[in-house]
Every structure is written in C-alpha cells, then in structure tokens.
Amino acid sequence: PFAVQPLRDAFQSIGPRAMEVAATLGAAPLDRFCTVALPLARQGILTAAVLSFAHTLGEFGVVLMIGGNIPGSTRTASIVLFEHAEALEYSAAHRLSLTLIAVSFLLLLAIYGTRRTHARAAGQG
Fold first, then answer.
1. Does 68 have pLDDT greater than 70?
2. Are 79 and 63 in contact (CB under 8 A)?
C-alpha cells in the first residue's frame, strides 16, 4: 500500500499526450514505457521505493513469518529489537528503536525535500 499510491499518482500525472506523441514518432509500446513513462514517473518510483523501505524497517510479523529467524541469515532490525526486549535488555532495545526512528525520519525528510524541490522546479520551468 505504501508503494501503490505514489506509483499510481506518478503514472497518472503523465497523461496520455506524452505517450501518444511517442507513438506517433514510431516508438514501440515497451520503448514508450522505458523512455517516456519511466523517466517521467521517476519521482513517484523513488518515493514508493523509499516509503516501502522505511515501512519494512519496522515490519515484524511478515518478516518473522516469511524469513523466520535463521541465525546469521535472516536477522532483521525488528527481530533483533524483539530479542532485546524479550531478554529484558531495554537499553539496547531503546538504542535500536531510536536508530530505526531516526533512519525512518531521515528517509521521509529526504522524500519530502526532494518532492518539494521537484515541485518548485516544475512550477518555475
């Protein structure tokens, strides 16, 4: 769900005109997608990727269900956080939680900063 909305909005914002122009210039459907749609939707693709990554940083249930907890292979931050809390190592759990919050906040800040810069450039251009 975190990826669908930015992707949908990015591809909808392209509109049919750019694709029609590419078609009249002889571009095949795959070529139109790769050379017209993807570059124009770049900002939405980046936003979807970063939001999905930030969300999965704290995901616990799905990670545990799919990947399990194979020592040395599938350890994720959320599983390590759970292990710290389970072992009553609250200071380590707090440090890891603070790190996850900081990383998520920085990612969101980067997205909104990039979107704001992109919106200003589009408004001036």
1. no
2. yes
Three-class secondary structure of residue 111 per DSSP: helix
* Gap between the Cα atoms of 52 and 30, Å rounded: 26
72 SS3 class: coil
Q: Considering only CA atoms, give the Rg of the chain.
A: 20
Cα gap 81→21, rounded to integer Å: 52
> For residues 51 and 6, is the Cβ–Cβ distance under 8 A?
yes
pTM of the model: 0.63
What are the structure tokens assigned to 13, written together? 């914002």
Give the other-Cβ count within 10 Å of 81's Cβ.
Answer: 20
Contact indicator for 78, 60 with CB cutoff of 8 Å = yes
